[in-house]
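Our consortium's second objective concerns turning raw sequence data into structural hypotheses that experimental partners can test. To show how far this objective has progressed, the report includes one record in full. It was chosen at random from the queue rather than selected for favorable results. The single chain below, 275 residues long, was entered without modification.
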Amino acid sequence: MNLQDDGIYCDCTLGGGGHLLMMLKKINKARFIGIDWDPEALDYVQTKLGNFRDRVILCEENFAKLDLILDHIGIEHLNGVLFDLGASLHQLKTPERGFSFNQDGRLLMQMSPEVIPLYKKLMHADNTKIYEVLKEYGDVPKARSIAQFIFENRQHLKTTFDLRRLVEKKCSGRFLKKNLHRVFQALRIWVNDELNNLQQGLIRAIAHLVPYGRLIVIAYHSGEDRIVKNMLRNFEENKQIKRLNKKVIRPLPTEVDLNPAARSARMRVGERCAF
């Protein structure tokens, strides 16, 4: 992010506040907006702000409503916007949130309390819908048979381990962990309507950028990255955005060594054209 002292910047995916705190430490006067749909994330970051608190506005909302957020706090233009997509480390490591197949917890996967939990969504989904979710959002091998198995047993799926045991019956072998990841990720994306929210968030972010303001998006899922790539290309064709990297930026091996979770990260950067 090209930070300026008189700028206003927005971290649309606050999470644990790592990006926000790093930017606050790099510049002395710029103001920041931190958005997260998860109230637990906001509570945590609030405790970490310290002397930076007077330069930050925290908002509990989905970034798809960025225009309404900015209107509510009386800000029209942004000098930079950051999206670091996917579930946060806190969500993945908290069993009670129901995101991880490595820890037993209720089958929720809610990024916000207002979202319908997974076990309830499955009760109202038919076999075709579950198949479409697994195929479109996870490219899951044996998606049809897994979807049928989930559909037939949906009344008994109450915890993450219930779902894990079910997938294990269809996907044993050395690719089990990868397939579990794909199934859980696909269902999480569906529950939280992540791809549609991303599209809406990008449109609103670009609309509020000042000339030469920058948009940075870090994606971890091919579907997310495809949306970002195509939307930036379309905005560039309409002379609204200049893509600063035509090829996706991936982490260096040294970065992955320090943070294994970054292995699948894909970053794209756009700069707002002059009006």
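The partners drew two points from this record. The mean pLDDT is 94. Residues 97-192 form a domain with the DNA polymerase; domain 1 fold (CATH 1.10.150.170). Both points have been shared with the crystallography group to help prioritize constructs.
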